[in-house]
Amino acid sequence: MSKVNIVFWTGTGNTSAMAEYIAQGVTAAGKEAVLIPVDQANIADLVAEKAFALGCPSMGAEQLEESEMEPFMCELESQISGKQIALFGSYGWGNQEWMRDWEERIAAAVASVVNGEGIAVNGAPGEDAAEECKDLGRDLAGLI
Ligand SMILES: Cc1cc2nc3c(=O)[nH]c(=O)nc-3n(C[C@H](O)[C@H](O)[C@H](O)COP(=O)(O)O)c2cc1C
After folding, report:
1. How far is CA 17 from the centre of its chain?
2. Would you give the distance in Å from CA 69 to the centre of its chain?
3. Which residue in 6, 51, 61, 72 has the most C-beta neighbors within 10 A?
4. How many domains does the chain have?
């Protein structure tokens, strides 16, 4: 059975909470969700599927986390042409620039962002954000 892989980095748990809600949406749609911390992710397994999710909070100065997520993204971006990728992550005080830049990187790699834009949540996901993440999981499940 095809799986929906959800690869993420989190420092304080907000982005992993989003990942878990996305996984709940996948499961509710009858597909298997696999939550994978980015340091355990395998690029070959990820690109074997048509669609998957990537999550990372805004770190540095509106950047992806630099020691694990950024190197992973650098390696991944040459291999995602034609893929549908759901983006998500938490942020603090910024203007969500990290998410806009991430969306542009996906487009430059000739891949698509599921639903056209990533889900950016301020701090911990509340009820509305949880529903948004579950909906994204259902959408992802429909793509594999
Ligand atoms: C080192 C560091 C840098 C950060 N840089 C930004 C930033 O540039 N913009 C922003 O909106 N939030 C920034 N944040 C806030 C985090 O994005 C925010 O706390 C987020 O909820 C963390 O998600 P997590 O719980 O998944 O780690 C930063 C946090 C840390 C620790």
Report:
1. 12
2. 11
3. 6
4. 1
Nearest atom, ligand 1, residue 9 CA:
26
User: Structural domain of residue 23, as residue ranges?
Assistant: 3-141
Q: What is the CATH number of the domain that holds 51?
A: 3.40.50.360
Q: What does the pLDDT read at residue 2?
A: 81
Mean pLDDT of the chain: 97
Whole-model pTM over 0.90: yes
CB of 94 closer than 6 A to ligand 1? yes
Quote the CA–CA distance of 111 and 126 in Å, as a whole number. 29
Confidence of residue 110 (pLDDT cuts 50, 70, 90): very high
Distance, CA of 86 to CA of 23 (rounded, Å): 12
Scanning the structure block, which residue is given the tokens 């929906």?
4
Upper half-sphere CA count for residue 52 (Cβ side, 13 Å)? 28
